[in-house]
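Here is the promised in-class demo. Please do not try to memorize the tokens; focus on the logic of going from shape to residues.
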């Protein structure tokens, strides 16, 4: 296994990727390859050899040798029987391919989804990764897994047929094979052409991603209000048109080269073989060759079959080269080795967690996001991390949950480096509410519990929704907690406000059995009254458990046993609320400013009354 290269590599191994594609499909469902093989072998053998060559040769042989009518009829009946058999095989193989195609798509989709869950978080913060991921998913979106089986099967069928037809032509007049030699050059031409097409598509990936983002964003509810109350739509359209224009320039850049490749390919595959065959036939007839008209008819049909079979091999090989380049992306996606590696220790009950001289910088950043951070939190202790936006608070949470690992220093759980623990078991200790909370187009209950719910789990979700303060609204809906959030897939779905969505997200914490609560701006979308009520419930739910509040709003800090003030990735102050207010430092200033703002807001409300 090796790390996933986010930059494009040259010298992609075509045959290795084709073999990888076939092995992948074979593991998913053998029927797809078997069905394509049956289809291709019967189609090429019957169409290019039995029908065009063998049957014609037998019939013309009967006529040349003045055979009986009975022989002629028996030959026709034999041909009819073969035709019925071939059609039966093709119907069966087509049914097999159709059924298997859907199953393989399902299996590969599931594998991609499962693999996506193992990716490091920094993959999602790197635009080059999205380009790579998009090209990998194109394998499924464009059914390349089905196409690669079809192309390989066609090459096998064409090659077998080619061998049989060439044998027939050689027996009649081997000189005609000379006119097919230029067709061999088509392989090289089409291979170069496919690489050029891939290079063109590669340059267009970023522009296509921009177009897809804008096309998706225009129809999303979350962006609809801003688009109608600002000039942002014009900006998006400018970017959309710019992406289209950039693609047009790329198409022009490669257009002439591709046209030349196509023209030369047609010359070697069509013009020279056909003209050469007729010219040599004319020469033979003029100078009294022993070749009969019926013999020439068989040769001409055979030459055409050879040309068609050879071109089929060339076309399918060209397609395989292009598909192999895309399967390279899928292979590298599946072979990606996460940098966040799970340990094997099982974490015991929570006693303490300590950051010890922790420094961290994001991969693409120019400076550290956290620098020499040290603190410790014990069981039953409540810690508040406060600071302005961008101070490094959320980064600290990402390190705590092992979305990233520190560049320097260690994080200790019960005195042991968290890297030594089983990743899933370690994360399961935490109950987390994130500031960039997300709810899904699933039922309210499913959003809270995290999977399909039985009646007992629905009862647990209901209690959690009561604690977060949203159950009164949910219970009034016709389907209650079974109501789907958003109307994207269901007309009877519900659209929730920002605060209501945050309450549903917070309910996940109340529904989970955790030992350490991590609350990253848990009330950012709530009004002061709703915020106060939620904190009351949080205090009850986190009794005798460790709690870490992360916020730039200081209402949570007053409830905490200890407060750490972070600024520009460093610890600036720490202590209790009383101690920090007495010191008159940054925390005191921040708290006084926020308190002043609340007082002015309260006075304004009273004046309105």
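The designed amino acids, position by position:
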């Amino acid at each position: 296994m090796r790390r996933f290269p986010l930059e494009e590599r040259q010298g992609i191994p075509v045959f290795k990727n084709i073999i990888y594609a076939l092995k992948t499909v074979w593991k998913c469902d053998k029927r797809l390859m078997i069905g394509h093989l049956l289809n291709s072998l019967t189609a090429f053998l019957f169409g290019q050899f039995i029908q065009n060559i063998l049957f014609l040769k037998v019939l013309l042989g009967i006529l040349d040798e003045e055979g009986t009518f009975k022989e002629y009829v028996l030959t026709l009946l034999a041909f009819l029987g073969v035709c019925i058999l071939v059609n039966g095989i093709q119907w069966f193989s087509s049914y097999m391919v159709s059924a298997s195609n859907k199953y393989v798509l399902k299996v590969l989709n599931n594998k991609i989804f499962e693999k996506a869950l193992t990716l490091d978080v920094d993959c999602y913060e790197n635009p080059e990764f999205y380009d790579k991921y998009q090209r990998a998913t194109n394998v499924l979106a464009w059914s390349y897994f089905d196409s690669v089986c079809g192309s390989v099967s066609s090459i096998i069928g064409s090659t077998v047929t080619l061998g049989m037809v060439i044998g027939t032509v050689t027996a009649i007049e081997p000189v005609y094979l000379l006119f097919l030699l230029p067709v061999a050059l088509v392989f090289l031409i089409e291979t170069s052409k496919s690489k050029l097409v891939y290079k063109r598509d590669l340059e267009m990936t970023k522009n296509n991603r921009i177009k897809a983002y804008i096309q998706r964003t225009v129809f999303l509810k979350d962006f609809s209000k801003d688009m109608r109350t600002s000039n942002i739509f014009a900006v998006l359209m400018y970017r959309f048109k710019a992406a289209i224009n950039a693609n047009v320039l790329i198409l022009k850049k490669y257009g002439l080269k591709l046209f030349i490749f196509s023209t030369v390919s047609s010359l070697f595959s069509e013009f020279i073989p056909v003209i050469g065959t007729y010219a040599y036939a004319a020469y033979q007839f003029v100078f009294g060759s022993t070749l009969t008209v019926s013999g020439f008819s068989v040769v001409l049909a055979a030459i055409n079959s050879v040309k068609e079979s050879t071109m089929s091999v060339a076309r399918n090989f060209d397609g395989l080269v292009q598909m192999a380049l895309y399967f390279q992306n899928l292979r590298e996606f599946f072979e990606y080795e996460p940098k966040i590696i799970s340990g094997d220790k099982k974490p015991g009950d929570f006693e303490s967690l300590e950051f010890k001289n922790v420094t961290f910088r994001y991969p693409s950043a120019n400076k550290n996001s956290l620098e020499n951070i040290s603190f410790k939190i014990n069981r039953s202790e409540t810690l508040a991390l406060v600071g302005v936006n961008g101070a490094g608070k959320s980064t600290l949470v990402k390190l705590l949950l092992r979305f990233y690992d520190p560049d320097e220093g260690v994080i200790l759980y019960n005195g042991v480096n968290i890297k030594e623990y089983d990743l899933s078991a370690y994360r399961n200790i935490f109950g987390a509410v994130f500031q960039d909370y997300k709810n899904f187009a699933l039922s309210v209950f499913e959003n809270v519990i995290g999977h399909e719910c039985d009646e007992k789990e629905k009862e647990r979700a209901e209690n959690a929704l009561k604690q977060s303060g949203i159950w009164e609204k949910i219970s009034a809906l016709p389907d209650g907690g079974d109501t789907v959030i958003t109307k994207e897939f269901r007309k009877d779905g519900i659209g929730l406000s920002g605060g209501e969505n945050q309450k549903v997200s917070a309910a996940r914490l109340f529904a989970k059995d955790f030992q350490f609560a991590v609350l990253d701006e848990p009330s950012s979308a709530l009004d002061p009254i709703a915020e106060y009520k939620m904190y009351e419930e949080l205090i009850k739910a986190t009794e005798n458990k460790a709690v870490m509040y992360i916020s730039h709003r200081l209402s949570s800090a007053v409830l905490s046993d200890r407060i750490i003030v972070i600024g520009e990735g460093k610890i600036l102050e720490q202590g209790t609320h009383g101690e920090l207010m007495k010191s008159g430092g940054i925390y005191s200033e921040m708290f006084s400013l926020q308190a002043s703002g609340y007082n002015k807001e309260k006075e304004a409300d009273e004046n309105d009354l």
